[in-house]
Design goal:
103 residues, alpha+beta, Ubiquitin-like (UB roll), five-stranded mixed sheet, 4 helices
């Protein structure tokens, strides 16, 4: 192993406890060498079949503190921190109607 390889830093990747219990035997933190969020997900899928699909369907992604809802092409640098987070629903849009007894 050359000096360059020893000094190479990789992204730190974190997944929620629910996914770690279901797919990785409880491991929630990883070091992954990837250039995009898609590469991170592919790496996780290779090591833990089913995890990549679960992430793509159910997770938003934070890369270096910025949250993305469609992150696949977002770049990941060698010293990035990548967090997979449960998506938060947008809520229900309701138009208020007056009570029938109040006019």
């Amino acid at each position: 192993m050359g000096a360059t390889e020893r000094l190479r830093r990789v992204a730190k990747v974190f997944i929620p406890a629910g996914l770690s219990q279901q797919y990785t035997g409880g491991k929630a933190e990883f070091e992954i060498d990837a250039k995009t969020v898609r590469g991170v997900i592919r790496s996780l899928e290779t090591d833990f079949p089913g995890l990549g699909e679960a992430i793509e369907i159910d997770m938003a992604v934070s890369v270096d503190g910025e949250i993305f809802h469609d992150p696949l092409l977002e770049p990941v640098s060698s010293d990035s921190e990548v967090y997979f987070l449960p998506r938060i629903g947008g809520g229900l849009c309701v138009t208020a109607k007056p009570h029938p007894d109040k006019k």
